[in-house]
Amino acid sequence: MLSSFRLALSLLMVSTSVFSVTVLNGQEKKEKQYIGSIEVVDDSFNELIAKDEKIEVITTGFQWSEGPVWIKAKGHLLFSDVPQNKIHKWDPQDGHSVFMDPSGFEGDNGEKESGTNGLMVDADGRLIACDHGNRRVYRLEDDGSKTTLAELYEGKRFNSPNDLVINSKGDIYFTDPPYGLRDKTKRELDFNGVFRLSVDGTVTLLTRELERPNGIALSPDEKTLYVAQSHRPAPVFMSYAIKEDGTTDNEGKLLYNSLKFAEAGDPGMPDGMCVDVQGNLWATGPGGVLIISPAGKLLGRILLGKSTANCTFGDDGTTLYITSSDRICRVKTKVKGLGW
User: Fold this and answer.
1) pLDDT above 90 as % of the chain
2) CA-angle at 196, arms to 187 and 230, nearest 5°
3) What is residue 29's predicted lDDT score, i.e. its pLDDT?
4) Arithmetic mean of pLDDT, 31-59
5) CA neighbor of 85 nearest in space, from 129, 126, 46, 42
6) Contacts for 47-52 with beta carbons within 8 Å, 24 or more apart?
7) Residues 60-71: what's their mean pLDDT?
8) What 3-state DSSP class applies to 113?
9) Fewer CB atoms < 10 Å away: N or C end of the chain?
10) Cα separation, 2 vs 71, whole angstroms
11) H or E element at residue 131
12) Which residue ranges make up each domain of the chain?
């Protein structure tokens, strides 16, 4: 799979330093910050994002930003700061504010990472969250209460549910690595699994073959499940064929191996991801965001200079929002994200 890198057709670099542009907003001056670079590996990438597009930093000051989700009904972004145990909101008009504090464990002696991680919205517009601190998946109700959707598999507590994706039927697919646990002796499962939570509440183990399953996404036709592995020996993106009953085979197929970038010192590991309407995977990994075709071909990268955790499409579907370490970034795309 690494041959696609060596066969790169072109490389386009935009300034790798942060710089500011002063713009007028009524009487108020705001400083826009742009960072990073865009790497074109295949000419088709130019149809997905303009070659002169800039990467904008929209807010900063977080410990480890994760789980971005665009709330269409409200027109704003929500995202987790996992170690700080908060969910934040960013609004195009009002900027940053705290949406929920705490987002996960309520108390003083929580897990290593007490907050939420991956966030999604169900068909009714309710927030669904992977809760590291309480080792569960929960739903946020309209009255602000939290309903636990899943916390056990065969009577044993999960490790720390990390990321999730919801299909058109309402089934939730999620990953369960051990990253959130402070005390590994508290582990009740002796593996790190990928699970499906069906609408009837049944939890099914899909695979336990990955050492560190992390980000997760579905293809547009919902026939393929993508899972990223944040694991230095094998920083890979896997694909799993989904059967008619919604389950998968235990063994997946290698979609793309990002080891070359990791060995070159590019920051980060495979993590969260999203899919566009053409079926391309926009996957965080070494260097920033890797754009991978459904056939496993690397098309390009959005390089951010820091470890990058996750991304999602927002606005009208043609803005990619990216959680990159202590900051939130965005970049305009030519293609729409899935669901728009």
Assistant:
1) 84
2) 60
3) 53
4) 95
5) 129
6) 47/334, 47/335, 48/276, 48/278, 48/280, 48/291, 48/299, 48/300, 48/333, 48/334, 48/335, 49/300, 49/302, 49/331, 49/332, 49/333, 49/334, 49/335, 50/332, 50/334, 51/12, 52/14
7) 98
8) coil
9) C
10) 36
11) strand 127-131
12) 3-322
Is the separation of the CB atoms in 85 and 115 below 8 Å?
A: yes
SS3 232: coil
Evaluate if residue 18 carries a pLDDT over 90: no
Q: Which two tokens stand for residue 149?
A: 């959707």
Cβ burial of 304 (10 Å; 0-12, 13-18, 19+) is buried
Pairing of strands 273-275, 253-257: unpaired
pTM of structure? 0.92
Q: Other C-beta atoms within 10 Å of 7: how many?
A: 11
For residue 25, pLDDT over 80 is answered with: no
Tell me the residue length of the chain.
340
- For tokens 């582990």, name the residue: 187
Token pair for residue 37? 């670079």
DSSP type of residue 190: S
Domain 3-322 falls under CATH 1.10.1060.10? no
